Amino acid sequence: MLMEADLPTDVEALRALVLEQARELDVLKVFQAEVERLKAIIEALQRHRFGRRSEQLDPDQFELALEEVEMALAQAQHAVDKASRASADRPRKVNRGSLPAHLERIEQVVDVEDKACPCCGGALHQIGEDVAERLDVVPTTFRVLVTRRPRYGCRSCEGAIVQAPAPARIVEGGIPTEALIAQVLVAKYADHLPLYRQAQIYARQGVQLDRSTLADWVGRAAWYLRPLRDHILERLRRSGRLFADETTAPVLDPGRGRTKTGQLWAYARDDRPWGGEDPPMMAYVYAADRKGERAEAHLGDFVGILQVDGFGGYAALAKRRQQVSLAFCWAHVRRKFYELADSSPVATEVLRRIAMLYAIEEEVRGTSAEQRRTVRAEQGRVIVDDLHIYLEARLRQVSAKSKLADAIRYALTRWSGLSLFLDDGLIELDSNTVERSIRPLALNRKNALFAGSDEGGDNWAVIATLIENCKISGINPHAWLAETLSRLAAGHPANAVGELMPWTAVA
User: Fold this and answer.
1) Is 166 buried (19+), middle (13-18) or exposed (0-12) by CB count in 10 A?
2) Which of 109, 229, 322, 443 has the fewest CB within 10 Å, making it most exposed?
């Protein structure tokens, strides 16, 4: 801020100063207008994400759009700070994040060159210091692990040569360590980087690896890891309640010049909402099609509640096997009416009533199964019963060929399965638990486009299963995979794969 003493006395100099200030003000106004415009865009996106139309925008697409806007906003704000002289007088408000204590600290000292007092020339002594921490990065660094195995002979008899056996490896005679193989798996199936992109990244470090070489490593690792996925699937079969869903998995179809549509089936268990002690887990299984008997083959002798969407294959399974009961998903019902809410008061009213059920669920989440059942019976049953009457009445009033009638019939034909949660505190209101596990598959599908074969689809299911279980258990998938692959290569017993499960690391 200019003080009166700082103003020049010369008229021309004063005029030049005024003109310069005017120009800076004009620039500042332009930047401030840009800041306001970008803030308005962010607010609109937030309303789109969190407001009434929240289901219309894909969460991942929202994040991509938001980060681009935030980058532009930061650029404009920086330009404003540079143009405004007052910006230096106030600290910049920014979310710096936290720097974990386990990170290596490399200290640098920025010191004065002359330790003599500028006033009297006496010696200076330290009276304090300012310390600032910044987050630094060293790009992926490769190293060569050299293994030496000395050989020993006997000078007395010269009849024996002694040498330690070579350590077991996942790729016998190959160059990768198990940690490097784990890195390739995590990059492909957790970070969604196709192998050819990984090869490009390694090439920038001077390491030339063909995509086919990386694919060979992935295939060998999948062979070792498949028993672990099968063990998880077997444990899921012994559960009394499971979530199930499926998604497409495009697979290259040699000879036809195009891809065919395979399926990745997902099965999950999560008892945390009602305080269950069993660890959450999930498994993917690849199949060449979406036939209903696939789920029956995957589930084996499963007996209990299966929480699913409206796919008819599950209904056929429950009809063939009386020990399986279907609990249908209220989120799918809500989605049908949400699509019609802008033009239909009936759909809006249905959404309002479903929202009341979700409000009750929010209150009982984390309580015991019995507490959940009691509250649902007291508060939720009347809502469900009234909604059933409301839908039946409206179905008689609307055109049978309308989309609203389709949405109503979708709910009414599944009403017994939609009502199961009222009498069982173990059942969730929707199947979002398994739908969340489908999202990583969709991201990988967008980046990799397709699997190379049915075997590649099965490898996808095996490795993605283990990585997703690491994420559920809150452990580092790279560290777990590196250790697990090393133990498997060293001959870990096949009948003890339960000791290698991701959740045992946090038990």
Assistant:
1) exposed
2) 109
Q: Which helix (H) or strand (E) is 434 found in, with range? A: helix 432-448
| Whether the Cβ atoms of residue 244 and residue 314 lie closer than 8 Å to each other | yes
pLDDT for res 71: 60
Nearest to 417 by CA among 291, 324, 296: 324
Confirm if 7 and 18 have CB atoms less than 8 A apart.
Answer: no
CB 418 within 8 A of CB 333: yes
Tell me which residue has tokens 């305080």.
275
State the Cα–Cα distance between residues 181 and 426, nearest whole angstrom.
39
Q: What is the pLDDT of residues 423-453, one digit of tens each?
A: 999 999 999 889 888 887 777 776 655 565 6
State how far the Cα of 146 lies from the Cα of 293, in Å rounded to an integer. Answer: 51
Residues of the chain where predicted confidence (pLDDT) is lower than 70 = 1-9, 31, 34, 37-38, 40-41, 43-97, 252-258, 446-453, 505-507
Backbone angles phi, psi at 113, to 5 degrees: -75, -35
Per-residue pLDDT of 222-272, as tens digits, reads: 999 999 999 999 999 999 999 999 888 777 666 665 677 788 899 999 998
- What pLDDT is recorded for position 95? 47
Q: Which of 407, 444, 378 is nearest to 187 (CA)?
A: 444
- CA–CA dist 170, 181 (Å, integer): 9
On whether the CB atoms of residues 219 and 460 are closer than 8 A, the answer is no
| DSSP conformation letters of 21-67 | HHHHHHHHHHHHHHHHHHHHHHHHHHHHHHSTTTTTS-HHHHHHHHH
- Residue 249 DSSP SS3: strand
169 alpha-carbon distance from chain centroid? 31
Q: Give the angle 360-363-367 at the CA atoms, nearest 5°.
A: 120
Cβ-based neighbours of 247, under 8 Å, separated by 6 or more: 263, 264, 266, 438, 441, 442, 445
**Which pLDDT does position 384 carry in this prediction?**
95
What single string gives the DSSP state of each residue in 145-174?
Answer: ------EEE-TTT---EEEPPPPP-SSTT-
Terminal-residue alpha carbon distance, the chain: 61
HEC readout, 280-348: CEEEEEEECCCCHHHHHHHHCCCCEEEEECCCHHHHHHHHHCCCEEEEECHHHHHHHHHCCCCCCHHHH
* Cα distance between residue 286 and residue 142, in whole Å: 34
| Predicted pLDDT of residue 380 | 93
How far is the C-alpha of 475 from the C-alpha of 497, rounded, in Å?
Answer: 18
Give the span between the Cα atoms of 406 and 236, in whole angstroms.
34
Output the pTM of the full model.
Answer: 0.76
